[in-house]
Design goal:
alpha+beta; Secreted effector protein pipB2 fold; four-stranded antiparallel β-sheet; rod-shaped
């Protein structure tokens, strides 16, 4: 599995790239203000580099430090140098034709540059713990099982809403008629039209009687006026 670690030491940026898909190769990049350097090595060479940096920190009081490493057709040399900016470690990659690449790691304050580089390199080389992989797989399985349980707990629509009923069923009067607060039976929808027709018939006959009474009264008044004339 590949990965990338990027960080800064003083004014330089470092990018440690681990190739993926089973490729046993790593690339270390150093980017300054005007130049960029790089070194390529296997993961075994990167582990050797980490051990050398750790040993250099332990032997910081000594005047010189140099180590070499060889794999296939490449060779690597790590040495400690000193200039006006302070101490630094230089990693040089050699191959056919001479120098292929170089990298300079500044000491930093209280050796923070060397320690930080070694820490980032170790983090990149560490594989993913097996426990984390198993925990992630179990978590995914648990999420799938909880989703299945949720689907099974869903209640069908017919069970939630009950049996279907038509509009005519809703208007039917139950066998036992309910009574209101005054003790009188409540009228159903089917009884309302009949009561309306009966009331209309009563009102019609009442208006007829009133009209006849008005006609009789009108005739009586005409007779009275004729008698006075």
């Amino acid at each position: 599995m590949g990965g990338v670690r990027s960080f800064r030491i003083e004014f330089k940026r470092f990018d440690l790239v681990k190739e993926g898909d089973g490729i046993n190769s790593m690339s270390l990049f150093e980017s300054g203000r005007y130049r960029r350097h790089s070194v390529s090595m296997s993961q075994k060479g990167a582990r050797w580099l980490g051990k050398c940096i750790e040993e250099n920190v332990a032997r910081a009081s000594e005047q010189a430090f140099i180590r070499t490493f060889r794999e296939s057709d490449k060779g690597y040399v790590i040495r400690r140098f000193n200039n006006k900016h302070g101490r630094y470690l230089e990693i040089t990659e050699y191959g056919r034709g001479g120098c292929k690449g170089r990298l300079a790691i500044s000491e930093g304050q209280t050796q923070s540059g060397w320690r930080g580089f070694k820490k980032e390199l170790t983090q990149l080389l560490l594989p993913i713990p097996v426990d984390n992989k198993e925990r992630r797989s179990h978590q995914r399985q648990g999420d799938m099982q909880s989703a299945d349980v949720t689907v099974q707990k869903r209640i069908p629509a017919k069970d939630r809403l009950g049996p279907p009923a038509t509009y005519a069923d809703l208007l039917r009067v139950p066998a036992k008629q309910q009574q209101g607060s005054n003790g009188k039976p409540l009228l159903s929808q089917s009884q309302i039209p009949k009561m309306g027709k009966r009331k209309f018939r009563i009102n019609f006959w009442g208006l007829t009687h009133i009209a006849k009474a008005v006609e009789v009264r009108k005739v009586d008044m005409l007779k009275v006026f004729e008698g006075q004339g």
